[in-house]
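REQUEST FORM: STRUCTURE PREDICTION
Request ID: SP-0412
Submitted by: Lab K.M.
Chain count: 1
Length (residues): 229
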Amino acid sequence: MDFNVNRYGRYIILCRSQGVEPVLVVTKRDLVSEVQLATILSALERTFPGVKVLSLSNITREGYASLMGLLVKGRTYCLLGSSGVGKSSLVNCLTGREMMKTGGVSDWSGKGRHVTTHRELVVLENGALLIDNPGMREVGIVDERGGLEQAYDQISALASDCRYADCSHLGEEGCAVVRAVEEGVVERSAYDNYLRLQREREFYETSVAEKRRKERQFSKMVKNYFKKK
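STATUS: Completed
RESULT:
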């Protein structure tokens, strides 16, 4: 099973930044032992408190009742995940028929094969709407609505107690976040992921801002050109 807490964090940030309520679904639970599954679910619940976490198997159908209980008539749900994690198989199981083409994981690369190449809107029997998306290799962070802070809300809440308003949480005196990590209140892995994603967001936001600046300059140049004609 390809389990990566950091990848889940990226999806949550993407959802939070767009005002979407995330639900983490761990698929292929039949491939791990009960002990391994419990460890995975516990890690997600500790890292993302307040986010609902489910596990299911497309083979045994374990966990499907819990998932169906969340799908409400008239509401739209979107499946996001890497290639080969079982999104299309999940759609087929929920509809009870072969709606989407499915494939396994490549023996050569160890990564999922791109089987779904387009978005597909499916209406379930209970009236819920489900969108299956192509598998995602990478998820970049361009966050303009505080998705990172909402995804790691425990760290964000602690940050308000830091001595300095512009604290970077990298060891400044009086940093409440670092103290919480040292005392075991915040998971070290969650803290590391938060810092990594924060740096990535700053990089992408700088890139986007630079692109917009150049677009404005080009637009101004074009307008000046036509004014002189």
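NOTES: The longest strand covers residues 23-26.
Reviewed by: T.R.
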